[in-house]
Amino acid sequence: MTPQELRALVRTVPDFPQPGIQFRDITTLIGHQAGFAASVRHLADHAREAGAQAIAGMEARGFIFGAAVAVELGLGFVPVRKPGKLPIETIGVDYALEYGTDRLEIDPAAIGQGQKVVIVDDLIATGGTALAATQLLRLAGAQVDHALFVIDLPDLGGADRLRESGLTVHALMDFEGD
Questions:
Q1: What pTM was computed for the model?
Q2: Cβ distance 52 to 75 under 8 Å?
Q3: What's the confidence (pLDDT) of residue 99?
Q4: By residue range, what is the domain housing residue 155?
Q5: Fewer CB in a 10 Å sphere around the end CB: N or C, the chain?
Q6: Catalytic: 72?
Q7: Alpha-carbon distance 141 to 112, whole Å?
Q8: pLDDT tens by residue, 76-88
Q9: CB-count exposure of residue 78 (10 Å: 0-12, 13-18, 19+)
Q10: Exposed/middle/buried for 133, CB within 10 Å: 0-12, 13-18, 19+?
Q11: Quick check: is 61 catalytic?
């Protein structure tokens, strides 16, 4: 399936979670066997071209696509978790949200020094979570140069923020404006 065909599988839910927001719901894409498989293959092709040695995905929907890409490539998967979810000593970074802060954590033993890690997530909006994940993975010793997404919301500027920080960014589809 082409990215344009995959785009047709993403459901738009108006006024969620608040009026004026057009929520892009990937559950219809991941529930479509051929569509989900094609999305994973497209992302895996980009990760392979980037020389990925491991795939990292952010909680929660990044786990869905990231783990599937890792399996497709025969690589390990690094879960980037919300605080308090790992039962071991972690390293973490705090990052700013529109109204407050959040934190991401990983197992520092999950990354080999200099290991080439590609970030995979379902959606790039403002880029805050992806930038924090990049910082965290680099803190653990990873080389992070690429970030892959199923959906880009270009009006929110996240992909541009990632590019400004030195990442190569690719999304299978974008949804502008509406």
A1: 0.95
A2: yes
A3: 74
A4: 3-174
A5: C
A6: no
A7: 7
A8: 999 999 999 999 9
A9: buried
A10: buried
A11: yes
Residue 175, Cβ neighbours under 10 Å: how many? Answer: 17
| pLDDT computed for residue 38 by the predictor | 98
Please answer whether residues 39 and 5 qualify as being in contact, where contact means their C-beta atoms are separated by less than 8 angstroms.
Answer: no
Number of domains in the chain: 1
pLDDT at residue 178 in the model: 53
Active-site residue (options: 61, 103, 138, 161): 61
Res 144: pLDDT: 98
| CATH number, domain with residue 70 | 3.40.50.2020
Residues 51 and 60: their CA atoms lie apart, in Å, by 24
What is the β-pairing status of strands 116-124 and 143-152? parallel
| SS3 call for 94 | strand
Instruction: Compute the mean pLDDT over every residue in the chain, rounded to the nearest whole number.
Output: 95
3-state secondary structure 100-135: EEEEEEECHHHCCCCCEEEEEEEEECCCHHHHHHHH
